[in-house]
Known about the structure:
The complex is a heterotetramer, with 2 copies of chain A and 2 copies of chain C. By secondary structure, chain A is of the alpha/beta class. Chain A has a single domain, classed as P-loop containing nucleotide triphosphate hydrolases (Rossmann fold, 3-Layer(aba) Sandwich), CATH 3.40.50.300. Chain A has helices at 10-13, 32-45, 62-66, 93-96, 105-118, 137-145, 159-174, 193-199, 215-218, 222-226, 229-237; strands at 17-24, 50-54, 74-75, 79-80, 83-84, 87-91, 124-130, 149-155, 179-187, 205-210. Chain A is globular, with a radius of gyration of 17 Å. Chain C folds into 2 domains: 2-68 and 123-134, hypothetical protein PF0899 fold (2-Layer Sandwich), CATH 3.30.2320; 70-121, no CATH class. A 3-stranded mixed sheet of chain C has the order 2-1-6, with helices on one face. Chain C has a 3-stranded antiparallel sheet with strand order 4-3-5. Chain C is elongated, with a radius of gyration of 17 Å. Chain C starts with a helix and ends with a strand. Chains in contact: A-B, A-C, A-D, B-C, B-D. Chain A binds chain C through residues 1-9, 12, 75-79, 92, 94-96, 99-104, 106-108, 110-111, 114-115, 117-118, 120, and chain C through 1-2, 4-6, 8-10, 12-13, 16-17, 96, 99-103, 105-106, 116-117, 119-120, 124-131. The complex binds adenosine-5'-diphosphate (ADP) (2 copies), magnesium ion (MG) (4 copies), nickel (II) ion (NI) (2 copies) and zinc ion (ZN) (2 copies). Residues 73, 75-76, 78, 110, 112-113, 115 of chain D line the site of one zinc ion. The site of one magnesium ion has 5 residues of chain B, from helix 3.
Amino acid sequence: MNIDPRLNIIKERLRDVRRVVAISGGKGGIGKSSVASIGALILSKSGYRVGLLDLDFWGPSLDTILGIENIFPREEKGIIPPEIFAIKFISIIYYAGERPLPLRGADISNAIVELLAITQWGSLDFLIIDMPPGMGDATLDIIRLVKKVEFLIVTTQSKVVLETVEKMLRMLKDLKVPILGIIENMKITNSPFVKDWAKKFDVSFLGEINFDKNLETSIGNVDKLLETNFAHSLKKIMRF
Amino acid sequence: MNIDPRLNIIKERLRDVRRVVAISGGKGGIGKSSVASIGALILSKSGYRVGLLDLDFWGPSLDTILGIENIFPREEKGIIPPEIFAIKFISIIYYAGERPLPLRGADISNAIVELLAITQWGSLDFLIIDMPPGMGDATLDIIRLVKKVEFLIVTTQSKVVLETVEKMLRMLKDLKVPILGIIENMKITNSPFVKDWAKKFDVSFLGEINFDKNLETSIGNVDKLLETNFAHSLKKIMRF
Amino acid sequence: MHEWALAQAVVYTAIEYQRKEKLREIVELEIKIGELQQIDREIFEFALKEIVQLKKMTGMRVRVEKEEAILKCRVCGYQWSFADSMKRLSGEQAEFIHFLPEVIHIHSRCPQCKSPDFEIVKGRGVKITAIKGIK
Amino acid sequence: MHEWALAQAVVYTAIEYQRKEKLREIVELEIKIGELQQIDREIFEFALKEIVQLKKMTGMRVRVEKEEAILKCRVCGYQWSFADSMKRLSGEQAEFIHFLPEVIHIHSRCPQCKSPDFEIVKGRGVKITAIKGIK
Lengths: 240, 240, 135, 135
Ligand SMILES: Nc1ncnc2c1ncn2[C@@H]1O[C@H](COP(=O)(O)OP(=O)(O)O)[C@@H](O)[C@H]1O
Ligand SMILES: Nc1ncnc2c1ncn2[C@@H]1O[C@H](COP(=O)(O)OP(=O)(O)O)[C@@H](O)[C@H]1O
Ligand SMILES: [Mg+2]
Ligand SMILES: [Mg+2]
Ligand SMILES: [Mg+2]
Ligand SMILES: [Mg+2]
Ligand code: NI
Ligand code: NI
Ligand SMILES: [Zn+2]
Ligand SMILES: [Zn+2]
């Protein structure tokens, strides 16, 4: 017999988390981490109790986008996420720093199970999970272990992006995983193409975020981030 | 005893391939597949014998960028890559089509080993490998199995991209894997930041490709692709 | 102290097993704790006792055993024991591995070929290796 | 016909083993071919014979055995034999799995919970399970 006891405690750890939202899309570089981090900020500023979990172990970036430094979880019957901007934040950077972490899928999976099993999130309205690209171990584990997860899909209008996002959508629909909706990011034309395309999947099109050349210079500064057009569009999409 | 015989034949399969170049960067959405596909076209047009291998199993896109359809390998003492634009092309799409392929790392690894073990590339000047994002199974397998591989790194000027690309560079340097150089893609300012940044790693900065709004409308059409500013810049970088 | 979270996982798993297998009582549990995670055995066993009480599983005897951590290189095939590399770790490095054993891939290398591409063959963390119950 | 490439891999591995272990001759090789890959055994054994001749390994007897393919669901734990799902595959689907067994994740699902997130426990492809040589 060889039972992994961690799998049985994850549900308990997320018991008082009202909604778990995984920011995904299958493709890289479409703005998942930007939506996850700025979205978490917006929710937190609006008075919600928010947790933020960075699952991109090869390229964690939420800390960089939000300018987070020098915090570390407390240990008490598990690990207690430190709070910053009133957001409970967990990332691999606490344990790996800025060093390269060459992990194969089996290790990624084990590390995700560990984080889900030992993190004491407490009571939350939203736990936002920033997903890595692809439909590999991280995606399959979140689907398998977090039964109440909802996926929020980010895309751009590019053909090569859409064909990969489409694969992710088809897999999620096929597995009956709830999909909150689709956000079109980095829009540079007025084309309604993506909005129309979303209809194929019977998934709500939540809104658009234009390409924002000021996003880059706001990285690392939360006040500036919240004043970008990116943030303003995202607020509208989230109906705040 | 449990020996995987496939591992011992890979060197033989690549015996007559002069150079193997993996297009990588660790991050997604930075233009790896665009560089791989258009780069392969440029080499082929210049008279080199070129192979092209798409290892992004979650989001294969070389076929879409190059407009490749309705080809399939022949079977003869292995699989013989079909030729298109005088490029020998292998992709998971032959076996998976456009369907979502939810593979964990262990399966990715097994599929890569299989493709390397059964594909008869024959004599080539260049085998271009389009890598998925991350430093997971695909990257670790190519490093472990293809001793003569050289990495070509693509990046953009964004902070969040650079910190992830930096991790990849540090891992490659640490493992003494040859790095051909760095290409800065999607440039929108004149800033020499990336060029200076590259000096830190003692890696050659090969050149820049500007953000090209005509790239998207050329996708799927090889003649148009070769006329884009993207292709012209890439030609210069490759010294043609 | 995050040992408590893992001990709780163990007891919850026993309860779940009891429910699934429709057992009247669980009488014995065998646990292996992998060397890699460097779990504080005293704290872990203390937490186990506390949670067993709390969850009224007092008929359950828990046997905790250590499991040697074995690593195997995917590049050159070399196999070694974590105990060997352990000596070369700083206190901080050991602490990070304690929380997330996978970061071993940052701090250790194959002793033969220096690759970080090795497999944790066994001895990673906590697992349940036997459960005895009565119907 | 890509069986030839795999047979070649087997013989090359035997040669590499002989070199590494400094053996005078390899006398026996035991191979398991996993059901999942649906290798044409006749073609495979024919290719083996040809390559053994070519590489002058004629002292080597090769025993080829079939290995049942077992799949196990990571979501619900259910375990099943590929032979069961096989009947539901079209000729084209079976052919794709023949070339790249991992595409099974497109064409088969866990019979219990319908998940594509299952593990190929055994019986995937070709492996060498024993080599006997003389010094
Ligand atoms: N709307 C936007 N306008 C301009 N740049 C953007 C926008 N959204 C994202 N970016 C930039 O694109 C790059 C990728 O974004 P990121 O959020 O890291 O994507 P992902 O997490 O999907 O890889 C980053 O450099 C980010 O700053
Ligand atoms: N220089 C460029 N100018 C404009 N768009 C680009 C440029 N390079 C890449 N792209 C676009 O960016 C997106 C990601 O490119 P891709 O080559 O697929 O990146 P990766 O393979 O790194 O994920 C695609 O929509 C592609 O068309
Ligand atoms: Mg990201
Ligand atoms: Mg960072
Ligand atoms: Mg790509
Ligand atoms: Mg395609
Ligand atoms: Ni602890
Ligand atoms: Ni065949
Ligand atoms: Zn080694
Ligand atoms: Zn199942």
